[in-house]
Design goal:
Elements lengths: L1 H18 L3 H26 L7 H16 L19 H4 L2 H20 L3 H27 L10 E5 L9 H10 L6 E3 L13 H14 L1 E10 L6 E9 L5 E6 L32 E3 L2 E7 L6 H9 L4 E6 L6 H17 L3 E5 L5 E3 L5 E2 L3 E4 L9 H5 L2 H25 L6
Parallel strand pairs: 1-2, 2-3, 7-8, 8-9
Antiparallel strand pairs: 1-12, 3-4, 4-5, 6-7, 9-10, 10-11
Helix pairs in contact: 1-2, 2-3, 3-5, 3-12, 5-6, 5-10, 9-10
């Protein structure tokens, strides 16, 4: 029910438009995908809960955290609407993500429910532990927000985002016209699939892009591309970087493909044939002059690892190019989940949308509705604990479960083994 209520209302219309399928097969496919990437894990938790050893405040919380960690990676991964995401609007608590990622917030949000589900001493101690943890997290986050440093402006670059024209009958013309009246910029950014055609096949579109770059400066735009020929040809959903001379200076190929829209929601049987291939290897920054860019295409912004890697590579800004086509409430959910990438890495995240307005997320998770961002390239930004050490909370959850089961086994052995001298 949780998965269907959270995802299905926007997944169904999106799937129906993308697949041009009837209501019955689309309902089955969307409901199945929501169950596979969400409901199945909740059902598994409900099944194992009665068998978990006490104290369940520890073991149930640890089991839930491990389930979410598995969901984030299994079958291509889908960390959509983790329990900790529910705290995205409570910024003092959300700052905990700098240390623990979303998993720490999942623990914080889950603890009171797990404690109140028990009785007696375990309930009382569970509530006390949660209250102390929440107070500490609130104090840490309030301190962080109060001491947020002001970035210098000397030597700053200007980034201008041009969003919201993907649905135009001629998107390239619409983006060219909107860019012509946009403020001057060192880097201009268009969203995912702002250019729906292949520049390799359209000389006039390629020439138009070159003219824009020579007029504006650096340009980053979402566009598909391909490599190879014949049966070996592979297609990618990409972000293309063009320098002020109109020359291509790099491309980022989307690694995490969206179920249904870009790949089948499950590997076997592959019920939906889609054209895109995932990019190879680990994501690497694109370099626009002095500015290092960490590109995240569409829902890649809900995955923590790419942003962590970019932060370790010293990017100046995270750029989320997304089309938001047919997502409805899903676009707002994605925006909410993306806030944690900024907090975890303490970097600006720019969300350029093909169907809606630009959203800027500052390093503390605050969402701003404007199209211009100024920042200093090469500014040394310290790596957060989460960027350096990653998913510590799921590892601790595994240790907790192992320790509880080991102690339980040890007690049983002691009970069954006669004492000395008997």
């Amino acid at each position: 029910m949780w998965a269907e209520c959270t995802v299905f209302p926007w997944l169904y219309p999106a799937a129906r438009i993308h697949l041009t399928a009837g209501p019955v097969p689309t309902t089955a496919l969307a409901a199945g995908a929501a169950w596979l990437f969400g409901g199945m894990y909740l059902a598994a938790f409900a099944l194992v809960y009665p068998w978990l050893p006490r104290p369940r405040v520890l073991t149930a919380t640890a089991t839930w955290v491990l389930g979410e960690a598995l969901r984030a990676e299994a079958l291509g991964g889908a960390p959509w609407a983790a329990f900790g995401h529910s705290l995205h609007a409570c910024l003092p608590l959300a700052q905990l993500a700098e240390l623990t990622g979303v998993a720490g917030l999942t623990v914080l949000a889950l603890l009171p429910s797990v404690a109140l589900a028990e009785s007696g001493t375990e309930r009382r101690w569970g509530v006390v532990v949660w209250a102390l943890a929440a107070a500490m997290a609130l104090g840490f986050g309030s301190h962080r927000l109060a001491r947020a440093p002001v970035e210098p402006r000397d030597g700053a670059w200007t980034l201008v985002m041009v969003s919201g024209h993907n649905a135009d009958p001629d998107p390239l013309r619409a983006y060219v016209e909107a860019t012509a009246i946009a403020p001057p910029a060192n880097l201009t950014i268009w969203p995912e699939t702002a250019l729906p055609s292949y520049l390799q096949d359209d000389a006039s579109d390629a020439a138009a892009i070159q003219r824009i770059a020579r007029t504006r400066g650096w340009l980053l735009l979402g566009s598909p591309r391909y490599e190879g020929a014949g049966t070996d040809r592979r297609y990618f959903n990409s972000a293309l970087l063009v320098d002020p001379d109109g020359h291509a200076r790099g491309a980022y190929d989307k690694r995490r493909l969206v179920p249904i829209a870009e790949r089948s929601p499950w590997p076997l049987p592959s019920v939906v044939a889609r054209p895109f291939s995932p990019g190879a290897g680990s994501p690497r920054p694109l370099v626009a002059g002095a500015l290092r860019l960490g590109v995240l295409v569409c829902w890649e912004s809900i995955f923590a690892e790419p942003a962590r890697r970019y932060a370790r590579d010293g990017v100046d800004v995270l750029l989320n190019l997304t089309s938001d086509r047919d997502l409805g409430a899903g676009a707002e959910q994605q925006l909410a989940f993306s806030r944690f990438r900024a907090i975890e890495t303490r970097r600006w995240l720019v969300r350029a949308s093909g169907a809606g307005p630009t959203r800027l997320i500052d390093p503390y998770g605050r969402v701003l509705g404007r199209d211009v961002l100024s920042l200093v390239p090469g500014l040394k930004r310290p790596l957060t604990f989460y960027v350096r050490h990653g998913e510590v909370v799921p590892r601790l959850a595994l240790v907790v479960l192992g320790a509880v089961y080991a102690l339980r086994t040890l007690r049983r052995i002691r009970v069954r083994t006669p004492g000395r001298g008997t």
